[in-house]
Write a sequence for this structure.
């Protein structure tokens, strides 16, 4: 396979940061080629373009003459949810104006949430398709509005951790990347992620509306202020005209619940949206990033169930590209 041409571009300067898009261009790419724009995971608090790259997706794009792009964005809790969404929208607009209007918007984990929210935004150029990989899609789901559900084990000093998060929100020191730590259980930002799960504070931190998750639990999603509803795409952003959507999730995911994807798939199908949901049987969170996978180099008949799931996802994307 020929070498990819790689380049990095600043798509936006904000808060003293230069937000970048990494471009992986195959030699067979044509003018106005398909671009798959991917947003990284990390629960919106950690991660960067270099962490847990989906090599299976990069390689699949390469074989098909598609351009793979990965965009950085500002991180919680220092940045606001609306600011992060504006970053991802600006990344799509940059690709649309500078590379191609034929875009697949994709993301993994928290990046899947951003892909969904971006595609649902009224100012977003319509993509050929949306791909959400084990997406943390709904910050108003039961998991995120009812306290007491730890992630990676309970946090003992929740109040102290919440105070640190509040201080970070006021600090003005915004980040656009944070490498995945070698020892997650001793890392402060991982502790913040665990605290925000255990104390059910994602809705509060996303919107900067203290107590919002609790109000959603009591009053329902009508408690979400109008100006923040674009941050809750699974509740307010799905319409019959939503772009074709592909969701991939392992049914043994212990970090992001399987129903984050299955419920969104049900909602989209009920609206008549072209929806494909791939259940990666027996797989956990990040299952396809644990090795370098090239789906086109192996034998499709070798019985690898996980790779067959990924091949089906690519086949559906190819269908949307050809019909778009």
């Amino acid at each position: 396979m020929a070498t990819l041409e790689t380049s990095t571009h600043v798509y936006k300067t904000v808060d003293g940061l230069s937000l970048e898009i990494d471009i992986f261009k195959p030699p067979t790419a044509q003018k106005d080629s398909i671009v798959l724009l991917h947003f990284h995971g990390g629960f919106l608090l950690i991660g960067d373009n270099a962490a847990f790259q989906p090599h299976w997706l990069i390689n699949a794009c390469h074989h098909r003459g598609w351009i793979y792009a990965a965009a950085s964005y500002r991180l919680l809790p220092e940045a606001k949810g609306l600011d992060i969404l504006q970053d991802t929208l600006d990344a799509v607009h940059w690709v649309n104006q500078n590379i191609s209007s034929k875009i697949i918007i994709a993301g993994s984990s928290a990046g899947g949430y951003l892909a969904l929210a971006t595609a649902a935004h009224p100012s977003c150029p319509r993509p050929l398709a949306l791909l959400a990989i084990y997406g943390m899609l709904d910050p108003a789901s039961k998991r995120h509005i009812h306290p007491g559900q730890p992630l990676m084990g309970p946090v003992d000093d929740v109040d102290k951790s919440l105070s640190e998060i509040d201080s970070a929100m006021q600090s003005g020191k915004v980040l656009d990347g944070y490498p995945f730590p070698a020892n997650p259980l001793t890392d402060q930002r991982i502790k913040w992620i665990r605290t925000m799960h255990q104390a059910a504070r994602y809705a509060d931190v996303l919107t900067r509306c203290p107590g919002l998750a609790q109000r959603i639990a009591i009053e329902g999603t009508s408690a979400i202020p109008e100006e923040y509803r674009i941050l809750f795409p699974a509740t307010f952003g799905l319409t019959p005209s939503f772009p074709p959507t592909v969701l991939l999730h392992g049914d043994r995911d212990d970090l992001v619940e399987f129903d984050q994807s299955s419920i969104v798939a049900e909602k989209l199908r009920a609206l008549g949206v072209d929806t494909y949901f791939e259940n990666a049987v027996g797989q956990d969170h990040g299952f396809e990033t644990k090795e370098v996978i090239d789906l086109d180099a192996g034998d499709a008949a070798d019985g690898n169930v996980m790779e067959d799931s990924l091949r089906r996802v690519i086949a559906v994307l190819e269908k949307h590209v050809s019909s778009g």
Q: What stands out?
A: The two ends are 27 Å apart (CA to CA).
